[in-house]
Amino acid sequence: MTVTDELVSYEDALATYDPVMGLEVHVELGTRTKMFCGCSTELGAEPNSQTCPTCLGLPGSLPVVNAVGVESAIKIGLALNCDIAEWCRFARKNYFYPDMPKNFQTSQYDEPIAFNGHLDVALEDGEIFRVQIERAHMEEDTGKSTHVGGATGRIHGASHSLLDYNRAGIPLIEIVTKPIEGAGARSPEVAKAYVAELRELIRALGVSDARMEMGQMRCDVNLSLRPHGREKFGTRSETKNVNSLRSVERAARFEIQRHAAVLNGGGTIVQETRHFHEEDGSTTSGRIKEEAEDYRYFPEPDLVPVAPARAWVEELRAGLPELPRVRRERLRTDWGISDHEMQSALNAGAIDLIVATIEAGAPADQARKWWMGELARRSNEDGVELAALPITSGQVARVCALVADGKLNDKLARQVIEGVLAGEGDPDAVVAGRGLAVVSDEGALGTAVDEAIAGNPGIADKIRSGKVAAAGALVGAVMKATRGQADAGRVRELILEKLGAEG
Amino acid sequence: MTDLTRMTAAETAATIAAGEASATEVAQAHLDRIGAVDEKVHAFLHVDTEGALRAARAVDDRRARGEELGPLAGVPLALKDIFTTEGVPTTVGSKILEGWIPSYDATLTRRLKDAGVVILGKTNMDEFAMGSSTENSAYGPTGNPWDLTRIPGGSGGGSSAALASFQAPLAIGTDTGGSIRQPASVTGTVGVKPTYGGVSRYGMVAFSSSLDQGGPCARTVLDAALLHEAIAGHDPLDSTSIDAPVPPVVEAARNGDVRGMRIGVVKEFAGEGYQAGVMTRFNEAVELLRELGADVVEVSCPSFSYALAAYYLIAPSECSSNLARFDAMRYGMRVGDDGTHSAEEVTALTRAAGFGAEVKRRVMLGTYALSSGYYDAYYGSAQKVRTLITRDFERVFGGVDVLVSPTTPTTAFPIGERADDPMAMYLADLCTIPTNLAGNAAMSLPCGLAPEDGLPVGLQIIAPAMADDRLYRVGAAVEAAFTARWGHPILEEAPTL
């Protein structure tokens, strides 16, 4: 298998085959400390500075369960409409890898904390698709390997590897769907919408920031095809670590086309893990699973069973926030926008930012305009999520207020936003620093308007004769003369006033 | 002046508290004794002369300042080399950890230090506590002070030999299948496996997590109780540690009495494989208990016959996972790191060179027993047997207060005799293993010397979980009666070396 896989067209693939997907999402919890020790989970620290005997797997060390981690897992389970286990255990998943300190991962196996749930996800046209949830279980993250000396950053060709165990032991919740059937041609869209919905849910629960570009949420896309009408699933491929919503959709789409080509050519799909490539949206073969890996799971003897009291579970259930889909529908109506526009805001991760901006005093349409326009463009360009841009909802609201007060026009406001993103300080500081205030001195503005009228007598006559639309050219001249720092609305009013025309 | 090394721990603490000898003098006397005899015995893997004298001086300073000293302040102790000690090597008897200096103290180590106990050094053991003779140590065998050509038991042979050769009045052992009790039995000393969860496992290098239990070793029942009290109790760093008050072991040890107690003799612990002299001394002990006023009855625990088989599935399974961390990446030995081998190869080469034969045998057994397709037949079945054994205990403890049996079927065997016969070696733990599987408490204490070889025989007392105090109540009564009958403690009969 190489990068130059044969593909068939998406439409042809769907004409012959029915895709079945399974999605596995890992969420890093935002707990203050690790899952089994007291080490900090803060990102960005010096390598191996946030470690202790337990998360380094030193001889003699033992784990202790993080109660907040269990609570977060139960919240996620409840929000996914799962049953919560009355009694469950951790299990050891045994395999050797240098970034796993104990050479077993403390996870859960046949006794997950949450199981048998579902999540309703909204597609772009507003249709609701129900994704069945198999289970959500607790486990710990591994350390991080950095392979040095090779061309690709992968282990192949590297001269040595560096290990950072700061991430080892950070709590993870793995959420596994049941096979997603019946989505047909919309399968990639369902996959993307599911991950988007899950991300919103996780954020609404306050258990994680779920920032995919930071690895706080990672998705594996398992996909197989079967000819229409056949019940038995085909062989699946497992595309690992697909780390953006768009990539989830692309990976599913690519695999549908690749599988179809292989099957059409009389070949068989190999059960294997595949790597996804952001650059061209393709996947390439990783490790071939000739025999199923034997993890030799057994109950973790160093931990006692987790038996959440029913009263506690009910208390957590009662405290669940409004579900994101319900909340979105409420906001959509409040804001007066379409399903499609709401879906775009969701995919951009903008909803909470818009809400916060409105709460900080901005009108809904203005808040949405900035986050979905200028700022969404910047987040795409920079390849970071909206929430990660160095601007706060309060700052955006302040820009909106300055525009509403006539102190900035749209063009200047964009420059202010740019200044904030460039680290020049709050909007007011950028306005002062760059000297961006709208020319609101009526005297100065009046002079500029008079000069524009004098310099364009032909246009002035047209306006006098009632061709009000021609005023645009004079407004442009004034704006040019004031280097854009005038309130265009006010300029237009002055021109019409001076020429005795009715706006 | 009396020989400071011949005193009990209780006497030593009293001597120091009264100012008749300083803790430093006591420590130095033991260090001198180690210097004189340990070349022959080889109880210690590492003697921490400096650390011991520093700890002793700290006790002397505290006494000089008029501070109140705890019941074991200044008493020297030999620590099994399975507990981590900050700044002091911890090898677990394995080459794979040679040179490793832990960055942290085990909870037990910390509690000993807090109690003012003077840790003399780290004692020899079967590699990763896997064995019954200490012959599996990567650093050579330990001799039994009663006969240096014989084994001191295992895995904690270094600790038992240190006690029996008067190199320390107290020692720490760990008991996964009998590693405290069987060494105590064959050296004429006292050893207690507390209830599972009674003593923290944090910092105790794991062999089989669900079976391992640290505990006290001493020359008298009271000393064992004092040490038990110092190391026991809830530890938030060990999730399996019991959050309940420690049973009143010291009080029980001071009030030995079996009058009115019902004592069960497990009938399955007799017959083929049991040395005649062991049964003679055991039966005398049972007779003694009757004379002392106990009501002795015979009980049956039919599932105990499956205990050894279940143990040799569960312990290797857990060890195969626990020992996976020894991969040459973060600490300990590293072989093949010459730029020509991958990380996986370095791990494989290191494990091949660093682990001994018994460890490899058990890692392989356990890996196999946990494999998909075999799990239910092996690990799963073994867990069911474990439940049956627990039920047998529960049933008989409905009718008796404690059980008694020989600790181990034979006296100390010669070094080398069973080294090539794992099955024969495993039989040494026949009577001790059921207690580990069920998680309750047991003690071994001397009940005489076998007539045919003059070597010590151990009496095992078994109590229900969290009734550890019953061991001491019965043990103290038996010890007092036997000492009176013999006219002196049994170790008086051991060679002086």
What order do the helices and strands come in, and which of them pair?
The complex is a heterodimer of chains A (503) and B (497).
Chain A: H1 10-16, E1 17-28, H2 67-79, E2 83-84, E3 91-94, E4 104-107, E5 114-122, E6 128-140, E7 144-148, E8 160-164, E9 171-177, H3 187-205, E10 217-227, E11 237-242, H4 245-264, E12 272-277, E13 282-288, E14 298-299, H5 310-318, H6 324-335, H7 339-347, H8 351-359, H9 364-372, H10 374-382, H11 393-404, H12 410-421, H13 427-434, H14 442-455, H15 457-464, H16 471-481, H17 488-498
Parallel strand pairs in A: 11-12
Antiparallel strand pairs in A: 1-9, 1-10, 2-5, 3-4, 3-14, 5-6, 6-9, 7-8, 10-11, 12-13
Chain B: H1 9-17, H2 23-41, E1 44-47, H3 49-64, E2 76-80, H4 107-114, E3 118-123, H5 157-164, E4 170-174, H6 181-187, E5 190-193, E6 214-218, H7 221-231, H8 249-254, E7 262-266, H9 276-291, E8 295-299, H10 307-322, H11 343-354, H12 357-369, H13 376-397, E9 402-406, H14 422-426, H15 433-438, E10 441-449, E11 456-463, H16 468-486
Parallel strand pairs in B: 2-3, 2-4, 7-8, 7-9
Antiparallel strand pairs in B: 1-3, 4-6, 5-6, 5-10, 9-11, 10-11
Helix pairs in contact in B: 2-3, 10-12, 10-13
Pfam family, one (chain A): GatB_N
Keywords (chain A): ATP-binding, Ligase, Nucleotide-binding, Protein biosynthesis
Catalytic activity (chain A): L-glutamyl-tRNA(Gln) + L-glutamine + ATP + H2O = L-glutaminyl-tRNA(Gln) + L-glutamate + ADP + phosphate + H(+); L-aspartyl-tRNA(Asn) + L-glutamine + ATP + H2O = L-asparaginyl-tRNA(Asn) + L-glutamate + ADP + phosphate + 2 H(+)
Report the C-alpha radius of gyration of chain B, rounded. 21 Å
Shape of chain B: globular
Largest sheet composition of chain A:
9 strands, mixed
Which CATH architecture of the domain at 4-259 and 438-493 in chain B is right?
Alpha-Beta Complex
- Count of helical segments of chain A? 17
Structural class of chain B: alpha/beta
Give the strand order, joined by hyphens, for the main sheet of chain A: 2-5-6-9-1-10-11-12-13
By CATH, the superfamily of the domain at 4-259 and 438-493 in chain B comes out as: Amidase signature (AS) domain
- Major sheet strand order of chain B: 1-3-2-4-6-5-10-11-9-7-8
